[in-house]
Amino acid sequence: MSASLPTRALWVVAALAVPLCAATASAWTALGVADDPLVRLPGTQPADGVVLEGPGQCMNCHDNYDPNVDVGFHWRGSMMAQALRDPLFWASVTVAAQDSIWAVGRPNAADLCLRCHTPEGWLGGRSDPSNGSGFTGSDHDGVSCAGCHKLYDPFFEDTYTGVREGSDWVGYWDESGASSTPSAAAALTTWTADGIEASTVEFFNGNGFYDGSNQPVSPGWTDHGGGQYFASSTAERRASFADANANHGQLYSRHHKSRYFCASCHDVSNAVLANLAFDGTTPNDGTTVLPTESQPAYSYGHIERTFSEFMLSDYGSGPGAAGRGVFDPI
Q1: Residue 253 and residue 37: Cα distance in Å, rounded?
Q2: Could you tell me the pTM of the whole model?
Q3: Is position 2 within any domain?
Q4: Which of the residues in the chain have pLDDT under 50?
Q5: pLDDT, averaged across the chain
Q6: Residue 27 lies in a domain
Q7: N or C: which end of the chain has fewer CB within 10 A?
């Protein structure tokens, strides 16, 4: 699956970038994305060393057995797989970088686009520079298997106790207890693993993001939209079945059955606008908490509100569909 950007996409980027470079090449000073407070979002950071495998290994088992049902076949034709090959996306990234240079003196706002369109490349630290020139290999496979199946629930404590999305374990969560692998026991195992992962998450200021009760230190941070990844450093894949028979380690994840899972990328906010007053803040100062680290993502810099619109609809506000079923089989 791995491939470089299509020629058409490169022409689009080049056509838009040439006049931009000519006009602004000497007008801005580079700042590494990792050190830029304007684009900082909570969660796992590229410097944390989490490595996402490309989809090739997954396809050994999850493809080429029945095109009617196998997930590999459907994924390869999906917009997720093409997320970093879409020429319209790259045109938008170019405009975002241009506007970012004009507004704040550097193109790093484009990184907010790249983090959702290639989790593997972003977590691997290859989104800097923010023109995408550092991406390689399976980075170009967009949102692939590990990009979803290594995510853990940033609100794992409240999900586990039933506070966040309810405690109807049988009716809502479909945990009947009929399996030889009870879901409740599997959920406890995952809760423990999530707690270990969460203990490593830090604010931009270097302090721990969670308190001793597994709650975010910032009580106003109640939403992880806009591409806020919380990615596991271990090899286990998280998914929605406790009794799956896989050839790799696995963890049962209520998060992957939850409406909130989709919010990770499908509510898009502009962190630059939220953090603008904190430009110049340096990492690890021990005190500063950025607005993006203390507010829900839906409250600032509206760009796309797919998930928010769902939550305010009859589907999201009642006991009906959780959202994922409409878009399965991915």
Answers
A1: 32
A2: 0.87
A3: no
A4: 1-26, 326-330
A5: 89
A6: no
A7: C
